[in-house]
Design goal:
The protein is α/β, with parallel strands linked by helices. It contains 10 helices and 14 strands. The strands form 3 sheets. An 8-stranded mixed sheet has the order 4-1-9-10-11-12-13-14, sandwiched between helices. A 4-stranded mixed sheet has the order 3-2-7-8. Strand 5, helix 2 and strand 6 form a beta-alpha-beta unit. It is globular. The mean pLDDT is 93.
């Protein structure tokens, strides 16, 4: 059966602890309630969530050749994700992060860059990867070998083959704009956080940011605005600002990746823009109610019900 989506980019093993109120002095111990391992990253977290939402998903990225790689690949396999396009790279560790999740949901991180810096997509995988109607590239900014011209070539090839392309990044700064802007003509849905969008463009409002990126070739911008909701702007002139859902936040790890997964799922089901944003927001909201980048997501049907029962924040 053909894949519904190919998810390319940053794959990370997250080790999360919650709640962390302080790091112990010296060699002392503090006791916490939960420690959890998850497959995360702007591609890894997204592909797990698309699979949990019922999409036939292809994982495309790299791990090392260590015990962390074994766990990442077996976990992806356990979710029914096709890992045949995942690379194991000798001599480097699997990318990994230790996250100390505070009671308010903040998550200071310690990160090993690892295998994702050595990942590239060889042409002999194009047929497999671009068979899917939707191609997501996630993790620009932490994909040292793929960032820049190789990513533009990848997205251009996806468009030549008739794919819908979605895109997200990580750790964006003003300097990241030079990497991102050449890719914009090949991106159908440009999906950074508003902070990243502002940092790269130098603009101060969602509308101005969207005008900037659409003017440089993106077909549509979908910005996450944190507690202010989401903003959708299409080259056809459609503009939507949708309030956030009211939830009790446990951990915000992976909320952006979950939003991406929810929006990709909505594209697969051909939802109208406002419904697609609502579904993506519900997916992200569910993740924020638990620990880790896939917490709270059960299925497409359950998430769809959540969009009907969750309450919006007042405008």
């Amino acid at each position: 059966m053909a894949h519904d989506v190919s998810v390319i980019g940053l794959y990370i093993l997250d080790v999360l602890g919650c709640p962390v109120t302080k790091i112990p002095d010296g060699g002392n111990v503090e006791f916490i309630e939960q420690i959890r391992l998850t497959v995360a990253g702007t591609a890894g977290g997204t592909v797990v969530d698309t699979a949990k939402l019922g999409l036939n998903s292809l994982a495309v990225g790299a791990v090392g050749n260590d015990e962390k790689a074994d766990w990442v690949l077996s976990t992806l396999d356990g979710f029914g994700i096709d890992t045949s396009a995942m690379q194991r790279i000798e001599g480097v560790p699997t990318s990994a992060t230790i996250l100390n999740v505070r009671p308010n949901g903040e998550r200071p991180a310690l990160h090993v860059r690892g295998a994702s810096d050595h990942f590239d997509l060889p042409p002999d995988l194009y047929e497999k990867v671009f068979e899917a109607p939707i191609v997501h590239l996630g993790g620009t900014g932490l994909l040292r070998k793929l960032d820049g011209a190789p990513s533009r070539v990848l997205l251009e090839e996806a468009k030549k083959r008739g794919c819908t392309t979605t895109f997200d990044l990580i750790a964006a700064t003003a300097e990241t704009a030079a990497i991102v802007e050449p890719m914009l003509p090949y991106i159908d849905y440009f999906m950074p956080s508003i902070e990243e969008a502002m940092d790269m463009s130098g603009k101060s409002t969602p509308q101005d940011c969207a005008d900037h990126y659409i003017g440089k070739g993106a077909t549509c911008c979908v910005f996450t605005l944190g507690s202010d909701g989401a903003y959708y702007a299409h080259a056809d002139g459609t503009r939507l600002k949708v309030p956030a859902y009211e939830i009790d936040v446990v951990d915000t790890t992976g909320c952006g990746d979950a939003f991406d997964a929810g929006f990709i799922c909505a594209l697969h089901h051909k939802m109208q823009p406002e419904d697609a944003i609502g579904f993506a927001q519900a997916t992200a909201a569910l993740v924020a109610t638990g620990l880790g980048s896939d917490a709270g997501i059960v299925s497409f049907e359950d998430t769809l019900r959540q969009t009907e029962s969750l309450k919006r924040k007042p405008v």
